[in-house]
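Tutorial handout. Part one gives the primary structure; part two gives the three-dimensional structure as tokens.
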Amino acid sequence: MVTRTKSSLWMTRVVLPILAFAALNTSSHATQAGVQAYTETNAYIHSPNQTDPNEYFLSARDFKYGANPGASSSSIAESGTWGSLSSNSYANLATGALKSQTTLNNIGASGLYVQSNAYFGDGFRTSNPDGSPYTWGPSSSGLFTLNLSGSITASPSLPALNAGAFVVLSIFRPGTLDPNGAIAGIPDVIQYFYWQLGNPTLDLFSCDYSGHCTQLLPTGFLAAFPQTITQQINPGSDFDWTLLIGSYGSPGSATGSFDMDFSHTLTAEYTGPAGTTTYSQSGVFPGTQALVGTVPEPGTLVLLGLGLAAVCASRLRREDA
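Part two.
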């Protein structure tokens, strides 16, 4: 479902420099505080087709939560004599797959914006062979393996078009993962890892409900694909986690085009400490077993009433005023 967005109330979890506010109506999630596993996708577009001065963005979002959440997907596109924009995203926790693609062709417009995000999150609990809880020590290690396939084409370069893609892995204290919360800069985040894709100058921010934003420090930069990312972790205990792939562009008055295509695909795998068994809140993440008492009843929630305001939109409002 495509939502026409006219106001901003809350900060989004991940925002780029062009974004001033990204609203997320979180009241419908309040009763789901104890649920860790989820999938979520977002797509945002701003183009000259939006003639209402108060209509900042077109957005499409999908969110599913609970044990064995289903796949989420979002897609939106706009075109005209000015050029074209498209945003697509997909998240499936059961297969460990995330997909994201944004395209832009700017013939001569200003104020274009496009963004795509695909997330999922889960809670992992680790047991010894006899079923007792595993105790993490200084030499303990878990391993996330991210197999990333895709391609980036841009003319001129992504930095010239103020565009880029990104992957973020965040590790949370057990039982604290909030599908709408910040992914960095809060006490419940043990550590995070941020990889820049295609643009080494890309700045990424994570924001909480109050609007406090934390700039993410890059872990690495990837320019060519396919790539395999391996990241060892030692959270010190059981943990929750979230993984995101996304891309965005906001070229201002610069003309040009790009296609950041990671739709074939980011696939995540996890290996726990040697000799242990990993149990997941979702009960479906590859290589894990379901926690006792997990009921596979997926919940589905299409988020409505979203608000998103960008710097370009703020300027439009000031000009109108």
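Part three, for discussion. Residues 311-320 form the longest helix (10 residues). The chain is about 5% helix and 50% strand.
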